[in-house]
Amino acid sequence: MTRYCDKITRLFMRSFLPLAVLVVATLSVVYSLDSRGRLDLIKLTEHQNIDQKKEILNHEVQHAVNNLKMLARNQFLHRFIEGDTASGRQVVTDFFNVLLVNGQYNQIRFLDVTGQERVRVDRQQSLIMVISDEYLQNKADRYYFQETIGLPDGGVYLSRLDLNIEQGVIERPFKPTLRISAPIVDSNGINSGVVVINYSGDHILGQLADSDANESAQTLLLDHQSYYLLGLNKADEWGFMFADKQDVNFKNQFPLAWQQFNSADSGQFIADEGLFTFQRFCPVVCASSGADDIPAPAGAAVLSNYWFAASFIAAPVIHPWILASYISGGLILLVVLAVYSWNNAKANCQRMLAEQQLKEQATRDPLTGLANRHLFYERASQVLAQSQRMQRGFAVLFIDLDKFKQVNDELGHEAGDALLLELSRRMRRILRKPDTVARFGGDEFVLLIPEMKNLESVYTVAKKVISSVSKPFTLNSDGAKVEASVGASIGISTYPENGEDIDTLITAADAAMYQAKSRGTGNFRRA
């Protein structure tokens, strides 16, 4: 059984291993090509995604700038500045209407040359309110007023996108705000104030987040110092607004990626963390006809206020399901191949075993398992041909059991069969591997000894056979164990002295056996 299982295992491995190697190699190549193609598609999609985000930023900022310039040139605002109180009511109405149709604006203000708010219209959730004079504030110390009041006619200032501050305190819940402001210049070219639109940062950030084409991609918006305006985690955003979060930024989290961001206006690269795609966006360039239109001294300060619109796809999620599907598909295929290979190996082994059994049935004695007459002649012919070629001798021993008929008659045929089976085991133990012993029928056996050294060596074999046969046999008879003894008479013929063909040698050995038997049991005689 062990040899049978070993043979199945060898056949299985011989069939399965080449198929498994072929499957793994093929899947590896296909996966490599497929993942490369999918990665290229992801990269293209993210490039398009970032282009779209930049267009969104351009559109939103440009629309606000157009409204701002319109308000800065409002004739009622200019009359109000010159002292026409009645025009002030129309200014409020115009501010109110602009705020009404632009839900992304949180506030519109007019500040005079001292930084004092003169007109202010706020959006509080769904309500639009005109702020009364007693609640108006002075913003002379705020950076956006200081940057804008010195700009020439047509100039526009875009602030940093930050959190709104009221009465010196960050407003809660957080209200991200982009302040877009322009100077009000009278007919004499003198700046007489500033118009400021507070643009909702939530609107911009929401537009960016909603435009994601890939669910696995995370949208980022970074300022020029790498602080998160739209981050991987809400808790990491607006770090520059808080004293205890000054080190919470993209530069510290992804230092190598930040170097790439700063080295070009746009790009895409794969880092250890994942796939980054980015574009630099300068709001001031969008707000003017070009960088050359930005006047000094404010122009240099404004140009440093740029953003990075970026997307990030973490390394484990670039194409994990693809790898998982290939692995699972490959495992299923390998299991199918293993089952097929095992069944095929089992079938082949059973076929080989059946063929071997048929061959043994045709060449072996069914009782003792010794060679039969057909196999003996086949091997003897080979030995004869080899002996003729090598010019050397071989011997044939004809063995006949003595007293075997008595055992059959007294103890029964089953006991006789058991004796023959045990006799075959004894003879196998005393013979060499090249020797062949065959049962010719009944109690007659023929022994072929190739490569005969000399007659003495043949006689030695004959003596061993006689000695082995003469030892008592323990047999079962009617449920009881009994001992039986038999003997052996052996006739010996040798090639070429006693014949030059197998039949002649067997006949000579048979005749010599009868001569030995006539001298009593346990004898051998040479022809």
Automatic annotation (TrEMBL):
Pfam (any one): GGDEF
Secretion signal, residue range per the UniProt entry: none
InterPro entries: DGC-Regulatory_Protein, GGDEF_dom, Nucleotide_cyclase, Rev_trsase/Diguanyl_cyclase, Sensor-like_sf, VP0354-like_sensor_dom
Name listed for the protein in its UniProt record: Diguanylate cyclase (GGDEF)-like protein
Domain GGDEF: 392-527
Residues that span the membrane, as ranges: 321-342
Keyword terms: Membrane, Transmembrane, Transmembrane helix
Cited NCBIfam families: GGDEF
